[in-house]
């Protein structure tokens, strides 16, 4: 399992003054430079041959110093993240999910009013710099963190996000590729082709995967994210699953949640300065495979294996624009970035699953009638967060092994729906007292131990209980003329809460 390295504040290298000086100098130098560099790579999406291992020719090496002007180096990004963690310590936590090939930590900023604590709230992640030569996202994520810190309790959207979402920002998934100014990581592997794939048996050998890929996969085994997005460059479009097709042809290949993904992508593109006015992509969104199929990508893996609805966001035609453009790109993307995160609490269906027996939260599952996809509830709190496109009627079904499933019909107009489920154990009414022992989802060994405990040293107590219960039952039947079985059903009937 993953044990995040929590930053030791006292050992921090960060010197705030030098950071500020650096920041001031980079801003002035990038403003002085002004003009846009040429796009280095014609298209993000041309997959003819192995062209995706991008150019590493001499001329690019020459350019790289110019390119980096005004962008944070890896060390500077690390300092900025640590400094943020200090400056905004009451709404953030800094941790690392692993290391790159060259040993650079993959730092994450978590932003929440209760960072690191488990709450009945959805979690969202943004990942930047998947491709080393697409650095805009890594800078925008630092802008986003700072904006949230400065505007918490001042701006309603900032406050909504801080108080109702756990937002995790990984500014750079590929720090080695960044310092080498190339697409792949230090082993020259394209990280967005390094995940297990549903259509192609590539990357199935876990040990041969890159450390950056493994770090993401372990992170998602450890944390339950409701949705996420990864930043890329080379186009201007919000791209959604599937990324691949079974027959490898370029064609629209929607996943079971196609409506949800088109809804989420549209939130991004329509909140953006001009993404939705694209001439190339209707509405500024595209199905991945309809654009160009790829295999081993991160987005499909998130949806299939991590219960996480992930978008791939192409945020500038120019992969590596001049740093002077960064504040403008932040302005263009700011509302998109905020609205996509906020959509997790402004729409969809949310709630908790409980056992009717003892009221304990259940780690059950949520499905929606007509959509072949399962969203899991949290292990400890039993909370679930199911994004759905609004303005439709849905039947939401809650299941849990050992319990009877329940369903409720909801209408999602504007705003979210809160829907809790109270599930009844799958037992006959007769013998329900003993049966309750078997309701617990403890393993069979502890069940056995419990039964042994009952029949062992505490046999007397158990018999006294039986006698009392029997007496109460007789009394109850005589006076209320209500059968025990009926009363159990009544308990089960106060099952759902809809707000
Ligand atoms: C991809 O690149 C090849 C060779 O460089 C070129 O012939 C082709 O037109 C390009 N395709 C796209 C979609 O840009
Ligand atoms: C964080 O600190 C600021 C400034 O001290 C304070 O106004 C705010 O209430 C704090 N927020 C939380 C969530 O504790
Ligand atoms: C969006 O605006 C930028 C900056 O003005 C421009 O370069 C780009 O071509 C525009 N894209 C679309 C799709 O309108
Ligand atoms: C539902 O999806 C699973 C894969 O997640 C697939 O194996 C199954 O065949 C699908 N069922 C239907 C009815 O499409
Ligand atoms: C919903 O519950 C009803 C009554 O329990 C059942 O008849 C129906 O099949 C369920 N529908 C779904 C979609 O599970
Ligand atoms: Zn990319």
UniProtKB/TrEMBL annotation:
GO terms for molecular function: metallocarboxypeptidase activity; zinc ion binding. The keyword Membrane applies. CDD domains: M14_CP_plant, Peptidase_M14NE-CP-C_like. The active site is at 314 (proton donor/acceptor). Pfam families: Peptidase_M14. Keywords: Carboxypeptidase, Glycoprotein, Hydrolase, Membrane, Metal-binding, Protease, Signal, Transmembrane, Transmembrane helix, Zinc. One of its GO terms (biological process) is peptide metabolic process. Residues 70-344 form the Peptidase M14 domain. GO terms for cellular component: extracellular space. Its cofactor is Zn(2+). The keyword Coiled coil does not apply. The chain crosses the membrane at residues 453-476. Residues 1-32 form the signal peptide. It comes from the Eukaryota. SUPFAM superfamilies: Carboxypeptidase regulatory domain-like, Zn-dependent exopeptidases. InterPro entries: CarboxyPept-like_regulatory, CARBOXYPEPT_ZN_1, CARBOXYPEPT_ZN_2, Peptidase_M14, Peptidase_M14_domain. PROSITE patterns: CARBOXYPEPT_ZN_1, CARBOXYPEPT_ZN_2, PEPTIDASE_M14. Belongs to the peptidase M14 family. This is Peptidase M14 domain-containing protein.
